[in-house]
Design brief:
This protein is of the alpha+beta class. Helices cover about 55% and strands about 10% of the residues. The chain has five domains: about 200 residues, no CATH class; about 190 residues, Rhomboid-like fold, CATH 1.20.1540; about 120 residues; about 100 residues, Aminopeptidase (3-Layer(aba) Sandwich), CATH 3.40.630; about 170 residues, Aminopeptidase. Strands 1, 2, 3, 4, 5, 6, 7, 8, 9, 10, 11 and 12 form a twelve-stranded mixed beta sheet that branches.
Length: about 1000
């Protein structure tokens, strides 16, 4: 195909690409993608600019899909009606109704992604038109998909040549198979839900998108009920989430509407619209003047010289502007500047744009324009000039590789851009700073060793230069104490994976390097097999910090280093050095760096191989946890640390402890550390060090701001709940905002509902059995089992230290029950974690505790009500409890925090907070966390945030799994997923 395209004029090539892509988008089985690939191959020879090929494909794709949209809009309803008559189970009205809603929710992503899959790209247009996706939305999504698809094909072909053709074809099939698997999984879930609903229609409840049959003409849904006579969506279909179209096709104005718009829009309107569109561009240019100016110079030079559409290395003046050893030997030192503002291929200008944004733009935002210019210029000079001196020195040793590079020319600003990127990375917080720099340095190192072009040498020197001068760059964050045990393990694990990958790639993939052999020798294959097999066996153990895999890795590294040393000696004395031995020497050289990492981080590999020995060590405590808690007090969740599911880490001084649970390789500390406040930071550091020693990921769940202040350097946090606190010394249930609470108290008096504060463990069996029955009835109504961790049950309420509030009718029948957990603290402290007040002393003396223990307040835990009992029993019990504790002198009560629920103020919400809010919305029908949080607002509390403290975002997936295990300890993940499907 490309040979034929090379014989026709460029305009004809553009028309062929446009026609094939457009007709393929209509559903005709033409090889549109193949023609695009062939035209791109022709552009590599300079016959046509790749930009023109790309533009022709984009226009053809948009035009073809738009015609397909119009066809679906015109004939889709008729086809749906025929399908509904012949295949009612597949094309029934309910399914079409749900499909309309799905198109509204996911249509944009489907249109963009469908362009990359061979069979789907012919369906998205007609399907979007049939289901009445608004045309403007479809046009935007289709244009984005066409730009990305055509750009990806042209870029890959321009970069890799013919070798990329097979890669693109494989990607298409992989994408198609992935979509097929996803469709099958969705179909299975839908059939499962359908059968479950048919077997138990009452439990199934109402559908997700209920259909009001009163809006239909016949009382049963028909296809005709979803569309109006003019083809637009009916009001009934609009309930699925789509807006009805008012004029034209899919919301596109007709000729009359366009004429009216043209007549009513003056110069002022056009100027205002242009200002609105171009305003962000101008603001960005003023914020990043160096980045914007640099890209402007690139663009002007590319257009003026024609290199934007024609490969610069084919220009007759290329050797006069490109830098390289030949240029400098000829005295053309100016090429250090001129070569910076060109790119080898037209498609590379897209990479320049990305590099300017990611590298130079980021550095300018961190260091300012002047320093960013200095980093860019310095990196480019070090990269170009440094490579020249290395090549001059290597040529004196008769290096084939150096002789090969000494004849090459290069252009481009990649050295400066990578220097800016490496410099910007030093401003990241730990541990991402170390990880990002390691990844970048590993990339340029592997590229230099296994590809070895002049550009690879320049990239390596640019990044190496920044690494060496990083401590002297303003904004550099020096890590106190060096990398942690976890970071050493991650670096070693990443190094092993990189070694295995590059050894496989270097052996199997062909190389243009004349110093290597196209047919690897037997020794190379043996080295590859040994290294890859051993790495596969030990890599995960190294990541977890086990001692034995570390020992094996060190032994393997020593053997490779010895092999490298022996081959290096042989290379010096041998007359003829076989290329296969050179490849083995190259592979072994990477082990030197890995061996250094393994040795420097040797203290990180002390995790016992046997699971039974991987436990947090215990110090000899002078006091038991209860004594520490009652003496020093704690936050509103402190009594939960006494529950039997917890384990304890006691600090070295024996005066502080951390209660934690271990799940899925994570140690979840519950609340704040218990002990003297002055020793909190040290206790956290000791707990973290002990967890990392045995390979556990530490985190702290529902901690106060005081604990956040004592967090280790580089740790981060996110809000998981809000504690609702009522200050008792100033509590007065007066005014309009307390009207609902006073009404519940008055109604309880009228209906002879009495309040009793007691210890449930001291109550007779009849009362306890009623409480258990009410709790079991509540659990039975939920789709998920009773939760644990920070949510106690009846067993926790039976603790003698826990207060229990009962609502009893005149027959001594329990109408509702609350359990209140004590919050201890020194008697002369009026405010602490979770505590409140304005300095007044108070508290309730605790029996059998330390010398001066006081209960400063209480935290609400168990809440249960009788289904057919006194309705406002919760309001009555909480209000009565507050008055009771106020009379006893307590400082506050905490209504506790509902997980994944918070007040309405989201001014500082992050992306992760948005994800948590979505999870809370999903769980709301199951547990009602947000509803519970809203209920507590009736008592006009103040709020204190409760946060999850963790090392970094990489720990969040395993922390989420561990929290699931902690809250649902008696339920398997498969069972949780099964119950989720039942919803």
């Amino acid at each position: 195909m490309d040979q034929w395209l090379a014989t026709i004029p460029p305009l004809a090539i553009m028309l062929v690409v446009f026609g094939f892509v457009a007709v393929e988008s209509l559903g005709v089985p033409l090889p549109g993608e193949t023609v695009l690939i062939a035209a791109t191959l022709v552009s590599l020879d300079g016959h046509i600019s790749p930009w023109l090929v790309w533009g022709s494909a984009v226009v053809g794709a948009v035009a073809g899909d738009s015609i397909g949209y119009l066809i679906g809009h015109r004939f889709g309803i008729r086809l749906l009606t025929i399908g509904a008559r012949r295949f009612p189970n597949r094309f029934g009205p309910e399914r079409v109704h749900n499909a309309i809603g799905a198109m509204n929710r996911w249509g944009v992503l489907a249109v963009i992604g469908g362009r990359f899959v061979a069979l789907l790209r012919v369906l998205v247009g007609p399907l979007a038109g049939t289901l009445r996706m608004p045309y403007r939305r479809f046009l935007v999504a289709n244009s984005i998909g066409a730009l990305l698809w055509a750009g990806a094909v042209v870029f890959v072909i321009s970069s890799l040549g013919r070798a990329a053709i097979e890669l693109i074809h494989r990607f298409t099939w992989i994408a198609l198979l992935t979509v097929l698997v996803v469709v099958i999984v969705i179909a299975i879930v839908m059939v499962y839900r359908s059968r479950k609903a048919a077997a138990n229609p009452v439990a199934a409840g109402s559908p997700t998108s209920p259909i009001d049959l009163a809006d239909t003409a016949t009382g049963s849904l028909q296809i005709s009920d979803l569309f109006q006579a003019d083809g637009s969506l009916s009001p009934l279909a609009a309930k699925a989430g789509l807006e009805s179209t008012s004029e034209g096709i899919g919301g596109v104005p007709g000729l009359a509407g366009v004429a009216e718009l043209a007549n009513n829009t003056g110069l002022a309107g056009v100027t205002a619209a242009a200002r609105q569109v171009l305003g962000p561009i101008g603001r960005t240019a003023r914020r990043f003047p160096f980045t914007t100016g640099l890209f402007g110079v690139f663009l002007v030079v590319a257009i003026a010289t024609g290199s934007l559409w024609y490969p610069v290395h084919r220009q007759p003046w290329y050797h006069d502007i490109a830098y390289g050893l030949p240029s400098f030997l000829n005295g053309q030192w100016y090429t250090l500047i001129t070569g910076t503002f060109f790119s080898q291929l037209p498609i590379h200008y897209a990479l320049v744009l990305v590099g300017l944004i990611v590298g130079v733009g980021w550095a300018e935002s961190r260091f300012g324009s002047r320093r960013a210019f200095g980093i860019f210029a310095g990196g480019q000079i070090v990269a170009v000039v440094g490579s020249l001196f290395i090549l001059l020195g290597a040529r004196s040793f008769d290096s084939t590789w150096a002789d090969h590079l000494a004849t090459q020319y290069d252009v481009g600003p990649s050295g400066g851009m990578l220097a800016c990127l490496a410099a910007a990375m030093i401003t990241l917080r730990a541990p991402w700073r170390l990880r990002a720099r390691f990844a970048l340095f590993a990339f340029v190192t592997v590229s230099l060793i296994y590809i070895g072009t002049l550009a690879d040498l320049e990239h390596f020197l640019a990044v190496l230069g920044v690494v060496l001068v990083a401590p002297f760059i303003q904004g550099f964050r020096r890590v106190k104490g060096g990398p942690s045990s976890r970071e050493w393990r991650i670096l070693a694990f990443a190094g092993l994976v990189i070694l295995a990958a590059v050894e496989i790639a270097g052996t199997l993939l062909p190389s243009d390097d004349p110093s290597t052999s196209p047919n690897p020798g037997a020794s190379t294959w043996i080295d590859l097999a040994i290294d890859v097999i051993v790495i596969a066996l030990i890599a995960n153990g190294v990541r977890l910090g086990y001692r034995l895999p570390w020992v094996i890795a060190v032994i393997l590294g020593v053997f490779n280093v010895l092999e490298f040393a022996g081959l290096a000696i042989y290379a010096v004395v041998a007359v003829d050095f076989p290329p296969s031995l050179f490849e083995a020497m190259t592979n072994s050289s990477l082990w030197i760096a890995l061996l250094v990492i393994l040795w420097l981080g040797r203290r990180a590999y002390r995790v016992p191989w046997r699971r039974s020995r991987r436990v947090v060590s215990q110090q000899d405590a002078r006091k038991n946890p209860l004594e520490i808690l009652t003496e020093d007090g704690g936050g509103t969740l402190s009594w939960m640390t006494m529950w039997k599911a917890n384990s304890y880490f006691v600090a070295a001084d024996g005066d502080s402890f951390v209660a934690y649970q271990r799940h899925s390789g994570v140690a979840i500390a519950l609340g704040d550390p218990i002990g003297p406040a002055a020793k909190r930071q040290q206790t956290i550091a000791e707990f973290v060090a002990e967890c990392e020693r045995i390979g556990l990921a530490p985190c702290f769940f529902s901690v106060s701001d005081e604990t956040l202040d004592g967090a280790p350097d580089g740790w981060t946090h996110l809000q998981v709940a809000e504690d609702t606190i009522i200050d008792l010394p100033t509590l007065e249930m007066t005014g309009k905002k307390w009207q609902a609470i006073r009404s519940s108290l008055n109604r309880a008096t009228r209906e002879n509902i009495s309040f009793r504060m007691t210890n449930l463990s001291a109550e007779p069996w009849a009362i306890v059995s009623q409480v258990r029955a009410i709790s079991e009835e509540w659990v039975g109504d939920k789709a998920l089992p009773e939760m644990g961790f920070t949510l106690g049950g009846v067993d926790e309420a039976l603790d003698p230290h826990v207060k229990t509030a009962l609502a009893l009718d005149e027959n001594n029948t329990v109408q509702g029950v609350l359990s209140w957990l004590p919050v201890y603290g020194p008697g002369d402290e009026s405010a602490a974690e979770g505590g409140g007040g304005d300095g007044a002393e108070g508290g309730v003396e605790a029996e059998g505790a330390a010398e001066h223990p006081f209960v400063r307040g209480y935290t609400l835990d168990l809440m249960r009500r009788k289904d057919d009992g006194f309705k406002p029993v919760m309001e009555f019990l909480i209000a009565s409890s507050c008055l009771f504790f106020q009379a006893e002198g307590a400082l506050f009560v905490s209504l506790s925090g509902a997980p994944l629920a918070r007040a309405d103020d989201q001014s500082e919400a992050t992306g992760i907070d948005a994800v948590l809010e979505s999870v809370g919305t999903i769980l709301e029908p199951l547990y009602g966390f947000q509803s519970l949080h809203n209920f507590k607002t009736k008592f006009n509390p103040r709020y204190e945030r409760m946060s999850l403290l963790y090392r970094d975002e990489a720990d969040l997936p395993k922390i989420a799994l561990a929290l699931t295990r902690a809250f649902l300890p008696n339920e398997s993940l498969l069972g949780i997923a099964r119950m989720g499907l039942q919803r």
